[in-house]
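Posting for a labmate who doesn't have an account.
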Amino acid sequence: MPDPMEKLRSGYTTGACAAAAAKAAWLELKGASKPDIGQVEIIFPDGSRRDVEIRLTRRGRGTAVAEVRKFAGDDPDVTDGAVVSAEVSEASLDAIEADERDHVERCAGIVVVVAGGEGVGLSTRTGIKVPPGKWAVNPAPRRMIADNIAGSGVAPSAGKSARVVISVANGAEIAEKTLNAKLGVVGGVSILGTTGIVTPHSHSAYVETIRLLVENAVTNGAKSVCFCTGAATERAARQHFQEVQENAFIRIADFIGDALDAAEEGGVTRAVVACMPGKLFKYALGFKNTHAAKVEADVKSLSGFMRRAAVDCDENAAALDAPTIRGAMKTLSEADTFALLEELGLAAAERLSSWVPSVEVVVSCFDFDAKVPLGKWTKQWRDGK
């Protein structure tokens, strides 16, 4: 099946840049780097290897620093062009818990401490992937940093850990253009990324690719398509909607409105929409483009859905104060969570169906790990988990 990203240049996440800088600095610290290092090969979460350009490296007394200028490809990413640096050193294993803001990663018998420096934010609230009081470096980037130091072929000295301090030039200013403040991340940007690769979201090019994929599926006999918000939901959807043709699973990212238009125009009679709770909430609110730069879904808007689900808003005020849907649902009981999901699913199915009257729209929601089906809804009927 054609890849929706083929026509657009992909880039690297801040997490991949941090991992590349960390490995380059580590090699410099240990005297294992090549003269005038211009790039370094890093391992990505899927096991692939790619070369990332290194802007500079320098060694000090007991430390080394490397910088990477982030390239986001054709994605309108606010961190595109930002300089991500890593300062590495060795620290005693006895002192790895010295700063409670730091993260400790272990890989192949090596301990790697990951800290934030200038321009990297600090988490202050629950509901995101980093606990309060910790540097805003997400799990996947931390793992990439550890994997690449462990895979460098150079281990820390006996009884020592590798300490990596990640910084982002002008990170505090860049963070003002993001939702970090609302998410409870203060002082700088978050170091993000699940795959290490920035998927470009150029509207016209991506939408045209969705249309081509729908046309291809219909031409090859498909009456149903399954629109998936990303790779994880596609994997889950393939397990649960095996009646859909192999070539009719299509990743749509944030372009739900355009995808459904393409389905209706292409003669599709049934469209499954596979998503997670965050996107489900935005669908229920009626957003046709769910990119964070395009819309802001205030969690307080959950109150209406909670009331319809007979979930007491006063008793569950913490849910409405949460920075994200993930955080909100962590505060609810299991019964209230599924009651709320039911109302969101029905509202989403109603909204999406109203845009394309000739298409039967099935909204399917999976958990945040895209492993557990949480519900399935259409305009006509409901089917719980």
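Reply:
Got it, the structure tokens are right above this. The chain is about 30% helix and 25% strand.
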